[in-house]
Automatic annotation (TrEMBL), chains A, B:
Family the entry assigns: Belongs to the homoserine dehydrogenase family.
Lineage of source species: Bacteria, Bacillati, Actinomycetota, Actinomycetes, Mycobacteriales
NCBIfam families from the UniProt entry: PRK06349.1 (NF004976)
Domain ACT: 363-436
Protein name: Homoserine dehydrogenase
């Protein structure tokens, strides 16, 4: 039985879909809509029909019917026979304008655009609320892994305290490979590029911008407050050395680039949040330590649910398209049933704590002059800044003497000031590595 | 600002809630509704108000206002001022009748009742569809872990091939403890009872009935077909010995009680499904191997998403209440916005394959007479039944000679027949252990 024959007999409603962008993800989305048409119709209660696909160059052969291609996305999203717009272009403009137009025209929108959402979710969610349509973005964080929907829906009756995740595949591939091979950063980055895990310009990944955009999205939905990429403290992995990883291993730790969103309760009962991205030591026994290669994982800690973990493929055409299509089916069902899913809520309006005031733990490695009293002097600097030391390790001797200190939790500013003070000590020839430590209770 | 003052100024709509049952989960649900009233109102757009709590004995002090208690749940679910019914009684009747009545009266229902859902989801979902209300049951499988919503919504545009999970905390506690301590089943079960991890009558847990009910629910939503508990092949853990676990460890494996739902594609393109529960060897490197104690985890394999894993607390008052409350907030939002969430769909109508036809791998341990030709004879029986051997290990000598065979994948019936034939061999004095093996590709 052909698709059209089935439609003729059953006369289901059709829902028109516009696809903006035909890269890896867009091509997989179009493939799934075509290959799984029967299943999708049953699940939705109406047929999904692709009305048009916006691309820059309509002349190129792309494996889809040429008549679907258009280089005029602005007209496509306005078409009366389009009910759902799927945006997989990336970048801020034109997606921002196209999505706003689509929402204003009463179309539901599914997007995987983390950079756009990190800065403009508020504007877009308002437009969606006014038009009573859906704005879904599961694919914007952690690819195929359901994390946006669990945070917005499954945990809607709970209080989220913390979200910590590995949400960038490129940096996780690099750090996993460095930990495994002992190779340095530059050669591992080059290898990641050769294998397709790093882009020609890897800045957005290795400097943590991608992870920071995702942290902003996660923090906003976890804490029901407005968070943009500018609110996220960010450090990348480009200064991580082979020695850092070797040293971490000696403490039964590894190094991961983490996106951390935290609710901070002050003694007076007021609350602030922290959203931050940095490479950190985590114990090998921590669930995130075993997440290797291009995989992603997100750990959520909530008041009643306790600790939850979500794990899977964080990138790639088909996995990301799976997340997009889950959103498309839900948006389509809502069109059939005249409902809509939950939008972001920002009622909590929690202030963002500056990084200096966020409690963290430091790992500090320094080269010191090998003579009596040095450890005492170093320990004194920590004490002066009210930073409590959890572990000390001294290695080598003579000119090669290295001192490694792991602290207990203290305000990040106090830790940074301690490091500055150490750098000025005559007995400390070099502070060779400063990293934070996460995934422990101390 | 008091709750009522806030309500007076903002005049939000109220939504009435009926809670059926005030055990561990019910008490936590009532606590969360009261303690988080402000947050819940913001997230829903209306206040949740508990109209009544059905208990068997209204005379007992229970830490809730006495006037809320009623021993007449049938009247409670019919009240005009009740919009959402939360069923946490457990058991088939009266919950079945109460939920059907509630749905017919236009109330949305949130339930954690896996035994009921495993057999009556169809009837209840029909009632919900006719009344255009929600029937949510995230808490029925794997406690706080979002797995129902990810399967029904996040993966709504994907094709699920397999769901395999540890979804019973009691059996996982027992097997984890046996693996760790080397103790036998009976003493570990007794210890689990003392620690509150096993009920006085542990049958439903240790014989796999609870895991089978959850497998039926998971299979139904994963494959969009009707599956009831009777369709699930089931074996419990009561015959697992300390020797089984020790032997598994020698193959770098452990033993877990798994709920497995599988889509089986035949050579001719037709599809069947399998839903089954049994203790199985899994490699220590498998993600489910590290799930210990009362924790639950579910691995989902989908066409496009690839492998996803969900991990967290599978039982307990607060974690289960977290899942219930997520559903309550979503059902409440749908009441505010006049929509409804997706119900189960059973359009696929896939037949259930009998266990004998399901491809599995066997681990067979047998005591044999130590003489030349025994291994050849044993191997011959496997070959006769077209079962390919993956690994053989011979241990001890004389009367103590033990032969362990791990097979490749073959129809479960052929494997069972092979074991029967082995039991009749004169050289095989005893088949001491037969377990399946999962989590490998072979």
């Amino acid at each position: 039985m052909t698709e059209s024959a089935a439609q003729g007999r059953r006369a289901p409603r059709e829902l028109g879909v516009a696809v903006l962008g035909l890269g890896n993800v867009g091509a997989e989305v179009v493939r799934i809509i075509n290959e799984n048409a029967d299943d999708l119709r049953e699940r939705i209660g109406a047929s999904l029909v692709v009305r048009g696909i916006a691309v820059r160059d309509t002349g190129r052969e792309r494996g889809v019917p040429a008549e679907l291609l258009t280089d005029d996305p602005a007209s496509l999203v306005r078409r009366d026979d389009v009910d759902i717009v799927i945006e997989v272009l990336g970048g801020i403009e034109p997606p921002r304008e196209l999505i706003r137009t689509a929402l204003e025209q009463g179309k539901s929108v599914v997007t995987a655009n983390k950079a756009l959402l990190a800065d403009y979710t508020g504007e877009l969610a308002n437009a969606a609320a006014e038009a009573n349509v859906d704005l879904y973005f599961e694919a914007a964080v952690a690819g195929a892994i359901p994390v946006v929907r669990p945070l917005m829906q499954s945990l809607a009756g709970d209080t989220v305290h913390r979200v910590a995740g590995i949400v960038n595949g490129t940096t996780n591939f690099i750090l996993s490979a460095m930990a495994e091979t002992g190779a340095d950063y530059d050669s591992t980055l080059a290898e990641a590029g050769r294998l397709g895990y790093a882009e020609a310009d890897p800045t957005a990944d290795v400097e943590g911008y991608d992870a920071a955009a995702k942290a902003a999205i996660l923090a906003a939905i976890a804490f029901h407050t407005r968070v943009t990429a500018a609110d996220v403290y960010r450090e990348g992995i480009s200064s991580i050395t082979a020695e850092d990883l070797a040293s971490a291993a000696k403490f039964d730790c590894t190094i991961k680039l983490l996106s951390i969103c935290e609710r901070i309760r002050e003694a007076d009962g007021t609350e602030r949040i922290s959203a931050r991205v940095y490479p950190a030591l985590i114990p090998l026994s921590h669930p995130l330590a075993t997440v290797s290669g291009a995989y992603n994982a997100v750990v959520v800690e909530a008041e009643n649910a306790g600790r939850l973990m979500f794990y899977g493929q964080g990138a790639g055409g088909a996995p990301t398209a799976s997340a997009v299509m889950g959103d498309v089916v839900m948006a389509a069902r809502n069109k059939v049933h005249s409902g809509r899913g939950p939008l972001e809520s920002t009622y909590a309006s929690l202030p963002v704590a500056p990084i200096a005031e966020v409690p963290t733990r430091y790992y500090v490695a320094m080269n010191v002059i090998d003579r009596p009293g040095v450890l005492e002097g170093v320990a004194g600097e920590f004490a002066k800044h009210n930073v409590s030391i959890a572990a000390v390790r001294q290695e080598g001797d003579g000119d090669e003497t290295q001192l490694i200190v792991i602290t207990h939790r203290a305000p990040d500013g106090a830790l940074a000031e301690t490091v500055s003070a150490l750098e000025k000590m005559e007995a400390v020839t070099k502070v060779s590595s400063v990293l934070r430590m996460e995934g422990t209770d101390e």
